[in-house]
Each structure stands twice: as structure tokens, then as C-alpha cells.
Amino acid sequence: MALAHKGLDFVERPYPFTAIPEIEEGFSKTVPILRDGDRLVRDSFEIAVYLDETYPDRPTLFGGEGGRVLSRFVESFSQMVLHMPVTKMAIMHIHDMLDTPDQEYFRASRLDRLGKEIEAVAAEGDAERETFAARLEPVRRTLHFQPFLGGDSPLFADYILFGALQWMRVTAGPPPLAADDSVMQWFERCLDLHDGLGRRVTAA
């Protein structure tokens, strides 16, 4: 979404979990990784900062320093408030989408990270589904004043939050939000951005 926002051409190359250590000679333990000519950048936020600094003549992702530091808050909100509930709702779906070597990696790495088997994590998913909408109340109140977190048009803060809900959409199905929920309406607007880029990824 950030690359499309900047109007930059790019080639996307998906990899399985077990192939990540082979990308760019082990440059990063996680994806995404951006190669721009001879430059390599890891981490979604750092990639966005790089794009804004390297291509200042193209549409801004942050709208200035204030937008950049406030986007860190949105990142923290997404990671601390949304990621674990989405994980609980999606974890078995993700496992079942993987080939056998990646299923084995996924089980072991999530046990190490979460301290319990993925079935035990998934068992908490129904409860998270019931309370998920309430977690988004700060976003809902913000969208009462404007169509995007960035104001009249999206900024990287929108793409951060959109990424969490899109992650759920493509692994476990649509976020558990009513059609008339302002957050769901915002999510639909984000799916339509950049000629429907978000909708090109098949939903679960």
C-alpha cells in the first residue's frame, strides 16, 4: 500500500516462512524486505520512512515529522491491542494454509513465542471475536471526524491499521464488524484504494 501510495512500480515476491533466511543472504529474520537498487531496507515502518525520504517529490506517507511520530503510536496501538486477538482468531487458519515444512516451523516458532500450542491459542478465538469491535472504539471515534486516520486522504497510519485487518481478512475471513460500523466502512474504503489493490488479495 505504501509503494502504491508513492506511485512507485514494484515487483512483489512472496516467500514461505522457511525460505526467509535465504532472502538477500539472510539480511533479515522477517519480511517485508525492500530492495531499491543497491539499497536494502527491512521492517514496514522503516521502509515507509525510507520511501518518504528517498522520494520526497511523490505523495507523502506521513505529512511531515508530526505524522511520522504519531504513526508510531498507531503502530503501537495495532501491535498491542489488535495483533494478539487477530492471532487467536486466525492462527489455525494460517497453519492450515501452509505446506508441511512451514506448518512444522509455524508450530514450533509460535510455541516458543506464545508459550502454548496453537490449538490452545485458537481456543481463545471465539471470545476475542465477541469483544473485537470494542477494541476499535478509539478508531471509531476518530473516524467520526474524518474519512481516514490521515484526514481527508490516507497516510501510513491508515496502512498500519489496515494491515492488521487485512491480515485477518486473508487468513480467517472479514473482521468481525457490522457492515454499518464506521471502522468497517473505513476498511472497505482502504480496500478500494489504489485501484482496489487490497481486494486483489483473495479473502479467506
From TrEMBL:
Q: Which InterPro entries match?
A: Glutathione-S-Trfase_C_sf (IPR036282), Glutathione_S-Trfase_N (IPR004045), GST_UstS-like_C (IPR054416), Thioredoxin-like_sf (IPR036249)
Q: Its domain of life?
A: Bacteria
**Protein known as:** Lignin degradation protein
The record's gene field reads: ligE
Any idea where the GST N-terminal domain is?
A: 1-59
A Pfam short name:
GST_C_7
